[in-house]
Amino acid sequence: MGNTLIDAAGTAHRVAEGQVRIVSLVPSITECLCDLGLTDSLVGRTGFCVHPRARVLGIEKVGGTKDVDIEKIRALKPTHVVLNIDENLREVADKLAVFVPGVVVTHPLSPHDNLDLYALLGGIFNRDAQAAELGRALRAEFAALEALPDLPARRVLYLIWRKPWMTISRDTYISRMLALVNWQTFPATATRRYPELQLGEARGQADLALLSSEPYPFRKQHLSIVGGELGPNTGVHLVEGDMLSWYGSRAIPGIRYLRELAQRLNGAASGD
After folding, report:
1. What b/e sequence results for 230-263 when a residue is b if at least 16 CB atoms lie within 10 Å of its CB, and e otherwise?
2. Distance (Å, rounded) from C-alpha 199 to C-alpha 227?
3. How far apart (Å, rounded) are the C-alpha atoms in residues 155 and 153?
């Protein structure tokens, strides 16, 4: 792997030496670092970093993914802070770079990018063997997915918010995740990655509407609201948002969840 590793910002990182103190500002990355065996090296996390619950409870909170407490992080004296281009603000990264030796920027854009993410984090933090194991597990899930019979194409509206209604563009990790089972998200084109829309725009344009459990906590009562707007030809379902949107180690059960979801909903659509 060499003695340098390149992150999503193009920054070269050396393999960490000595005592490592990590602050993670990305919920899915926090979980991944724990699964790489780095729980004891984590000294800070956001309030949204809630998995794995039993292991993160004792880790200091440093604000949210956007409203980061810079001085609280400074007091923790981290050797590394891990961020994400979508989750965190550029100005936060710039402020942290003044006093944190290693600012690691991540930006997986598709499920397959998790393989590089494992290698990056495992390489920087001396967890190559654990990273390789995560890679093997993820490849096994990809293989199980690819072994399925040809999956029928479905047009999917994936809702992440209401008041206003918001969905995803195809230029997102979630959309690329759904594309693994031949589900193409609506709208086909968008100027924003997370566009607002009127539900009526999707009437007759979607075979399925998936209501995510996060960031907006859609519940059963929303099924009839969305179904009423989209009409009887669109199946409306609640889905576990973290399984479809979290990268890192969560992608491993996430791919399995997607495979089982596609089999169930495709079977329902065909009347099996």
Report:
1. beeebbbeebebbbbbbbbbbbbebbbbbbebbe
2. 10
3. 7
DSSP-assigned letters across all residues of 45-111: E-TT--SSHHHHTTSEE-B-SSSB-HHHHHHH--SEEEEETTTS-HHHHHHHHTT-SEEEEE---ST
**Tokens 């809630």 label which residue?**
50
Backbone torsions φ then ψ of 98, nearest 5 degrees: -65, -35
CB burial class (10 A; 0-12, 13-18, 19+) of residue 218? buried
Structure tokens at 102: 């290693």
Beta bridge partners of 184: 155
Alpha-helical runs (H) found in the chain: 27-35, 53-56, 70-76, 90-97, 113-124, 128-146, 173-179, 221-230, 241-245, 251-270
Output the CA–CA distances (angstroms, integers) from residue 89 to 67, 74, 78, 108, 115, in the order listed. 9, 17, 19, 16, 24
pLDDT, one tens digit per residue, over 16-68 is 999 999 999 999 999 999 999 999 999 999 999 999 999 999 999 999 999 99
Taking residue 8's Cβ as centre, other Cβ atoms within 10 Å add up to 18
- Asked if 23 and 83 count as a contact pair (C-beta separation under 8 A), the reply is no
Q: Which residues pair with 60 in a beta bridge?
A: 44
pLDDT tens track for 232-248: 999 999 999 999 999 99
Rounded CA separation 244/69 (Å): 29
Burial grade of 71 (CB within 10 A; 0-12, 13-18, 19 or more): exposed
Confidence (pTM): 0.94
